[in-house]
């Protein structure tokens, strides 16, 4: 039998262990120098060591039956310390139990894991139902841990009897739940204490923050007259400082004067001293000359401090700096004087009217000395009186000359309800003024007059440039309402031209054109609505749009539409009717080619009312736009230079064209520059080298004239036509090439002969035309088939290429007939050598489709003497006659004629 005293002693030891773990937990929670990861590791080690000690202090409640508190540790570490500490504690428990060995080692390890899992389930239930940790919940947790451990033991030890499980379960149930409750309540108490301290510290910090942040000074003294508290504002205004741990200053020690700055204030009359005596002070004005902020005039309010029983506990004063209020009148006076000086120094005109519309301030920009002398003192006069003076005086608006009363009425309406955008007025002396008007908060009026004559001149020049570009141009605002357009856009849309007026919406313009039959396939109301929705959707997006549009009369335009950086839209229309017609013509000539779409994107300058908007417009144009002065120096380049050349446009400003482009390019453009600087607009196509790539651009130079009509530079606009140029070249080459042999076709040779005939007539040297075919080709073609015949023609063409010179032109006229054009001073000798070489080269056997063929050729040569006036038809005729002579002489030879006379034949 186990004595009761022995069991009680072991229980006391386990309770001591619980207390030890609780003390360790509190120490780790209170440590402020350890980082959180180390605290979690420490908690794991603490509860792991606690489990080890619990196993060492096991209680023998019956012979051979032991219980311990290891799983108390393994469950509560989950509840209070988190997963990291849980893993460490459970690992230490399992390792130690395995180290002890014995039959129950595996069951003990499984019990530790089961205790942790039960605790995790307990935490999940608590998180879901949010119940408070208390004695009952800890007892339930302990009982659940005992049940889980016993179940694990039963599963791993099925050989034990039911009595053994009961003998183990009951003692554990008596020991583990109370132990879990005791340790859990101790840990819970420590957590609540730590949370309470944290809240108290937070409140103390909040109070100190608020106290130190108060703008007014606050000074607190205790009942003994010692200043125990003062915030930074009080220290700054009075110089009274409370040093922690130092001797506190006494109330009334700071030097104070009355508001006159001369009379000292007796100590007994000072607000803090009065407050200590139980007397309140309201709004006393004192000067503290020795404050760190300098002499400051303060409004001081004092109150005594009493406790709940009405006993005197000290006093408090609140100090407010009223120095600025004393100097406010002087400051206002100085501000008004400086404001008047600033107004007089403004370059723009300025006028300020009161709520009754009478003039308060003005400067020379609004009314100069001469006008003021003529009018008299304008101060106090109403805006309408001054407006009439402008309308009927020496200086009047251009519109006022026709009807002064109507102009005054309009001006007063604008004045009473100022628009968001400034008003522009043209004076009769040629100056433009931009008037910006705003109403003040008190109902007054502020007006600013800005001279924009120079800007208007620049706008006029830009408008001229836009009017002279060959494309239709529109500038639309963010809501797709028309702001600006040129004449060309109206020419392109004659049916809806009257709708191209500033302020009209794009939808209205499209609708008018559709209703008047301007667009093909758009006639019914449903078709019109669908057409408008389609084009409005294309134009509303932020992404650029490029496409084509057709007119009812057969014309085509290229549509380019993109958004500017300022939120407006630039829309350009280019007439591509001729390109479309050319595509159709090329498609007819080449049946195996589809119509090529010629698209040329051109960019232009646009007019705006200020330089930033002008730059935004030109930057949005998909073309190179620049202004060059008469010294051939760039003065402006748009953003397209960055996209094309990869350079900052500003880096080109100031450079001369000769230094900025390649020498071969400058040699091309120099004559055109001289032409435009002579006042003549010019347009041409030239190559352009950008980033090592050669492109083709269509270049337009537009002269710029100064006020005296002299050329002061020119606008350079270039748009990339590389794609269309390459397509045209490719289509031209294909139109002139024989598809079977790759030689020139009949049309290509005709152009060569026509060009060469002009050169020969001009005396540029002699030449010869060779006309040749394959002997008996029709017999081969008819007996062996056209496929063999085509292969034979390819071989024959290759043998001709292998004999002629690089400068000679070779063409297949049709069938098996071929023509060679030779240009040389000794043309007759060259032609004979070529003909003889061809005869020998063609005689070599030909293998086609497993057959070996022997062929020959007959050649007719027409020699053209230098300066001979012959047509290309005569050249072909003479060489054809020579060919028949060679065939008549037995084939496999050549015959030579001198343009009308036969020279003979030769093998």
**Helical content, roughly?**
40-55%
- The portion of residues forming beta strands comes to 15-25%
How would you write the strand order of the largest sheet?
4-3-8-7-6-5
Number of domains: 6
Annotated CATH architecture of the largest domain: Orthogonal Bundle
Subcellular location: Cell membrane
Transmembrane segments: 7-26, 38-57, 77-99, 105-125, 137-160
Membrane topology: Multi-pass membrane protein
Coiled coil: 576-610
Structure at a glance:
Residues 203-241, 610-680 form the PAS domain. With 907 residues, this protein is α+β, with helices and mostly antiparallel strands.
Name the features.
disordered C terminus; Beta-Lactamase; six-stranded mixed β-sheet; 47% helix; PAS; disordered N terminus; 31 strands; alpha+beta; 907 residues; 6 domains
Give an overview of the whole structure:
With 907 residues, the protein is an alpha+beta fold. It has six domains: 4-196, Arp2/3 complex 21 kDa subunit ARPC3 (Orthogonal Bundle), CATH 1.10.1760; 217-326, Beta-Lactamase (2-Layer Sandwich), CATH 3.30.450.20; 348-451, Beta-Lactamase (2-Layer Sandwich); 466-589, Beta-Lactamase (2-Layer Sandwich); 623-724, PAS domain (Beta-Lactamase), CATH 3.30.450.20; 736-906, 2-Layer Sandwich (Alpha-Beta Plaits). The chain is 47% helix and 21% strand. The chain contains 29 helices and 31 strands. The strands form seven sheets. A six-stranded antiparallel β-sheet has the order 4-3-8-7-6-5. The protein has a six-stranded mixed β-sheet with strand order 25-26-24-29-30-31, sandwiched between helices. It has a five-stranded antiparallel β-sheet with strand order 10-9-13-12-11. A hairpin with a 5-residue loop joins strand 14 and strand 15 (482-485). Helix 1 (4-30) packs parallel to helix 6 (162-213). The longest helix has 52 residues, at 162-213. It is flat and about 145 Å long. The model is unreliable at 1-11, 592-608 and 900-907 (pLDDT under 50).
């Amino acid at each position: 039998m186990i004595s009761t005293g022995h069991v009680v002693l072991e229980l006391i030891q386990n309770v001591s262990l619980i207390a030890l773990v609780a003390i360790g937990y509190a120490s780790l929670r209170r440590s402020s120098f350890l980082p959180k990861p180390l605290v979690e590791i420490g908690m794991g080690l603490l509860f792991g060591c606690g489990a080890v000690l619990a196993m060492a202090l096991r209680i023998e409640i019956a012979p051979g039956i032991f219980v311990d508190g290891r799983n108390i540790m393994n469950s509560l570490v989950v509840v209070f310390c988190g997963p990291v500490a849980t893993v460490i504690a459970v690992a230490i428990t399992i390792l130690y139990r395995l180290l002890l060995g014995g039959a129950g080692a595996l069951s003990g390890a499984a019990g530790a894991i089961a205790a942790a899992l039960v605790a995790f389930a307990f935490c999940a239930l608590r998180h879901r139902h949010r119940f408070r940790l208390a004695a009952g919940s800890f007892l339930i947790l302990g009982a659940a841990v005992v049940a889980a451990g016993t179940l694990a033991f039963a599963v791993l030890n099925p050989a034990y009897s039911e009595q053994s499980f009961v003998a183990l379960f009951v003692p554990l149930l008596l020991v583990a739940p109370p132990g879990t409750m005791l340790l859990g309540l101790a840990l819970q108490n420590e957590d609540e204490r730590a949370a309470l301290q944290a809240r108290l510290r937070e409140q103390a910090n909040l109070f100190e923050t608020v106290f130190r942040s108060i703008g007014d000074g606050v000074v607190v003294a205790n009942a003994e007259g010692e200043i125990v508290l003062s915030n930074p504002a009080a220290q700054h205004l009075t110089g009274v400082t409370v040093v922690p741990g130092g001797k506190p200053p006494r109330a009334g020690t700071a030097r104070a004067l009355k508001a006159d700055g001369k009379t000292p204030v007796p100590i007994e009359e000072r607000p803090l001293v009065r407050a200590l005596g139980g007397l309140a002070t309201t709004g006393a004005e004192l000067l503290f000359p020795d404050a760190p902020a300098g002499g400051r005039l303060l409004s001081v309010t004092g109150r005594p401090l009493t406790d709940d029983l009405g006993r005197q506990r000290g006093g408090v004063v609140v100090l407010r700096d009223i120095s600025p209020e004393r100097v406010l009148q002087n400051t206002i006076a100085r501000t008004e004087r400086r404001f008047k000086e600033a107004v007089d120094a403004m370059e723009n005109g300025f006028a300020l009217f009161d709520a009754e519309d009478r003039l308060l301030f003005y400067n020379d920009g609004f009314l100069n000395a001469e006008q003021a002398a003529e009018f008299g003192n304008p101060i106090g006069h109403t805006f309408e009186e001054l407006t009439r003076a402008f309308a009927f005086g020496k200086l009047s608006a251009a519109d006022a000359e026709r009807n002064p009363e109507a102009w005054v009425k309009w001006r007063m309406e604008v004045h009473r309800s100022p628009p968001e955008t400034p008003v522009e007025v043209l004076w009769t002396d040629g100056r433009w003024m931009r008037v910006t008007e705003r109403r003040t908060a008190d109902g007054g009026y502020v007006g600013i007059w800005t001279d924009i004559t120079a800007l208007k001149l620049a706008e006029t020049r830009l408008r001229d440039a836009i009017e002279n570009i060959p494309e239709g141009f529109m500038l639309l605002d963010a809501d797709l309402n028309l702001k600006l357009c040129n004449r060309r856009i109206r020419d392109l849309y004659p049916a809806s031209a009257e709708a191209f007026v500033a302020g009209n919406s794009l939808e209205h313009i499209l609708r008018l054109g559709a209703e008047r039959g301007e667009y093909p396939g758009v006639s019914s109301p449903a078709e019109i609505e669908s057409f408008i929705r389609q084009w409005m959707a294309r134009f509303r997006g932020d992404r650029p749009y490029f496409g084509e549009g057709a007119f009812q009369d057969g014309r085509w335009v290229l549509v380019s539409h993109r958004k500017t950086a300022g939120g407006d839209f630039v829309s350009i229309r280019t007439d591509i009717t001729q390109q479309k017609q050319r595509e159709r013509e090329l498609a007819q000539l080449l049946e195996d080619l589809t119509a090529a779409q010629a698209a040329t994107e051109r960019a232009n300058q646009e007019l705006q009312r200020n330089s930033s908007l002008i730059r935004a417009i030109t930057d949005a144009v998909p073309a190179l736009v620049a202004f060059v002065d008469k010294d051939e120096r760039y003065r402006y380049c748009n953003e397209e230079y960055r996209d094309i050349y990869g350079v900052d446009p500003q880096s080109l400003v100031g450079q001369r064209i000769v230094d900025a482009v390649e020498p071969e390019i400058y040699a091309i453009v120099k004559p055109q520059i001289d032409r435009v600087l002579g006042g003549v607009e010019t347009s041409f196509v030239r190559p352009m080298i950008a980033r090592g790539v050669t492109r083709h651009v269509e270049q337009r130079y537009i002269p710029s004239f100064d006020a005296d009509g002299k050329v002061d530079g020119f606008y350079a606009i270039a748009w990339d036509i590389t794609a269309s140029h390459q397509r045209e070249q490719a289509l031209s080459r294909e139109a002139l090439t024989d598809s079977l042999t790759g030689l020139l076709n009949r049309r290509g040779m005709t152009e060569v002969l026509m060009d060469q005939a002009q050169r020969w007539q001009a005396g540029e040297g002699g030449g010869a035309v060779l006309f040749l075919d394959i002997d008996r080709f029709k017999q081969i073609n008819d007996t062996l088939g056209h496929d063999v015949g085509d292969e034979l023609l390819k071989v024959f063409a290759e043998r001709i290429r292998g004999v002629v010179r690089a400068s000679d032109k070779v063409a297949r006229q049709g069938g098996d007939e071929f023509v060679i054009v030779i240009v040389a001073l000794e043309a007759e000798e060259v032609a004979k050598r070529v003909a003889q070489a061809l005869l020998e080269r063609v005689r070599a056997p030909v293998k086609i489709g497993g057959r070996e063929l022997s062929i020959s050729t007959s050649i007719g040569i027409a020699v053209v003497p230098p300066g001979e006036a012959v047509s290309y038809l005569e050249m072909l005729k003479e060489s054809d006659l020579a060919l028949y002579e060679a065939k008549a002489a037995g084939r496999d030879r050549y015959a030579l004629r001198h343009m009308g006379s036969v020279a003979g034949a030769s093998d």
